[in-house]
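pinned: reference chain
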Amino acid sequence: MEYKISNRLRIFAIVLIILGAIGVTSGFISSKSYETVEDVKELLASEAHHGDAHEADAHGDAHGEAELHGEEAHAEEGHKMSHEEHVLHQIHNRPYAALYVAAFFFFMIALGVLAFYAVQYASQAGWSPVLFRVMEGITSYVLPGGVILLIIAFVADSHLFIWLTDGMTTVGHDNYDALVAGKSGWLNKTGFFIRGAVFLAGWSAYQYFSRKFSVAQDNADINDNRNFKKNFRISAAFLVFFIYTESIMSWDWIMSVDPHWFSTLFGWYLLAGMLVCGVTTIAMIAIYLKSKGLLEHVNDSHIHDLAKFMFGFSVFWTYLWFSQFMLIWYSNIPEEVTYFVTRIEDYNLPFFGMVAMNFVFPLLLLMNSDFKRVNWFVIMAGVVILCGHYVDIFNMIMPATVGDRWFIGIPEIGAILLFGGLFMLVVFTALGKYPLLAKGNPFIKESKNFHY
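pinned: its structure tokens
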């Protein structure tokens, strides 16, 4: 059962990349058209003239404690950044933030699939081996996606990570921030990229060797399961490595954009989003390949189980979202609630809309067992889930970088097209490298005959 990426799909992916690159470039050009505070004053005046006077006038002083973590609060002892300077920074930050959100979203899908794949091996699951090649194809994006993400972080610098602003750890400097200075032992550029390189090397090494052993098992003698056992051992070891590194990655790559805020649940929260996006993507690609007459051994029961995981992980994500939100809201500690106050005030629609998309829709669409076997229904639920989790990442990054000057426009859509095209090109090219059936897996017969 061979698959080769079609010319039509390859061209479609390349067109997406080109259109996305144009959109991202236009976002940077547009942001650079505002070079001075005077340009921003004209922009705010025109907004006020068009009926947005409240937004233009109340921008700087209406949030109170909600902006303690932002750029306005950098100077506890020096001058306070003017409202116009703050807006200028936000405008310049937006294309970097849009690029980072989309890059992280597609990387997160691949990493979620890698963790799910490792769990299948470590638990010696009998239902899933017919889907292993699909999972291995998706995980091939981990290395290129992770490298691109770190490059964006390096280039963006203080546009994304406020703690990289010059003078934040220097006592007496205008930008000095005592809290960020106290975290500088961890939050520094050298440590950030060393940790990122270690994480990515570990994840990519597991991805490489697990696929190598999986393919080698196909060509081994019928009673020779040595490669399967190797895969079992490295999967168990990888899961220990992953659960630590994923938490630290969530602090570094996402939570540190808000260096004044932290949550002990955040690593788990991000993991739940990764897993639901990963399983959703496995289901959608499996259904696509089946529509092409491939994956003959993948039946309704396999799709049902994937949809069951989509449903279960969505509920798990909601549990973690509510736990984090409820505990912080109930305690009402200023340095903690600032995170949610900012999002509820400035991101009301995406903040609560994301909860509906990630919980209410999966609950309604996938609660019924029969619906989990209907391919178009699973695809529809998958599209809603993926859109919802993109907005979730958007809500994590944007408030600290662009404040209430957010919009899902050309830079954001361009970045989605760019990385969506790249993801498709890498994944479907990787799917064509090996047969789609892991025939040497000792559980393959059980997987072929799986019935729920």
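why pinned: The chain has one domain: 7-448. Residues 224 and 419 are 40 Å apart (CA to CA).
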